[in-house]
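[Meeting: bench + compute handoff]

Bench side (C.D.) handed over the final construct sequence. Compute side (W.E.) agreed to return the predicted structure before the next meeting so the bench team could plan truncations. Sequence as handed over:
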Amino acid sequence: MKKILPVWFGMVWSIGILLSPAWGGYVWNTDGDISYAGTGGNWTEDVTVSGKVIRDCTVSVTDTPWSINGTTDGLLTVENASVLFQNHGSVEMGKTSDATLTIGDGGKVYWYTDDDGKYGYVNVAATGYKATINILKGGSLEVLRNYFGNQDLKGTTSEVVLNVAGGNLAYVGSRQHLRLGWHNPATITISQGGTISSTRDVSIAESGNTSKYNPSQLTMVGESYVKAGSRFVFGTQSYGAVTLSILANASGMGNIEANTYQQGSYGTVVLGVDHAMTGLKQDTFTIVKASTYSGWQEKREETALWNTRTENGAVEAFLNPARRQGGEDFALKITDDWLFTDISDELASNGWLWLEPSNSYYALELLLDVTDVEALVDWYNESDSSVQAEVWAENMIRLSGFSPDISIFAWDFSGYEPENVSLLSVGARNVPEPATWGMLLGMAGWLLGWQIGKRREK
């Protein structure tokens, strides 16, 4: 028995290492009257929701405003459940407090389509508070009448925050449009393949008294989509300044489809990369496709990381050849030893380089001119990237987890606000892929247990 225990210890420890990424789970707040699990429910009276979860059920809301508020922060989570609003059923958020609605995997909040434009509505951030809607992968919010930022509040802190992280926000009616930042500013982020769509217009800050005190922002990170059946319109109002940021990463680049792309003089387009440093699978992406363009301006800047061209009704963003490290014939080799290239001074703030094809995962080491390297690493690790950063030496970081299909490394530090950062050199090296690391650690644990057993036997 004494011989067996150490070996079993090593094997169990090894299995734990291999399975640990799958461990974990959610802890749900299911206290309170307005929480159903598996039984469903029907609400026909005015309801205030705070800190509740709807899970594993189907709920109907009829003839009632459904207020997501609380004494401090209103909070509602919907996962693997459907919430149907009928007749006068509606959602109000940010009316008496800041409020958050999170729609997770399998969650669906929607309206009975025969009520199109007549009764139920979404009224978000109506009276001076912040309303946040998170639509995660596998979740959807389908609206008819909608007011994402409903009143001109003359300088109050009212704000709409939409985070479409893999989910879907859609206007599915025929009488109105999807209006984001209608009278108050909206901060909108689409990422992880998320989609915002409308059978008619998708408009950002398109009311005459929108955003008098704060601009609106639409940020598309990696693979992300906006699909408008009619117009995609922003920046046409003097009080409605809007910045559209399209940031590339390994999953791709944002894509806008519309019959008409309409950009006013108060709209700005920014092209960049996610969290300043990213790997890419290609150097060209289609970012807009429309039958008619109004206000689009080509980007042809010598010092810009991205430039654009319009061909066959599509706008393509392409990496600027003038910002390529080493010129058109250079590619950084990836071998079992570290190989470095010194970055040209003129490319220190933004640029890109080709990487020779690799058959395995690899890591990059970056030497930077930076004051607080730990703060930069912490900020980078907030991204959705599978690549992880760590401080490797003084003013040096290592980025680990690049897959073999990543053939370009691009950087643009203009989006990092705490300080100016410059890239001085880049090195590359093959490393075992994550599964291989798990197997090696598992074998090490098994051998450790075996050695302990052998020593005790002696």
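W.E. noted at the follow-up: The chain has three helices and 38 strands. C.D. will use this when planning the next construct.
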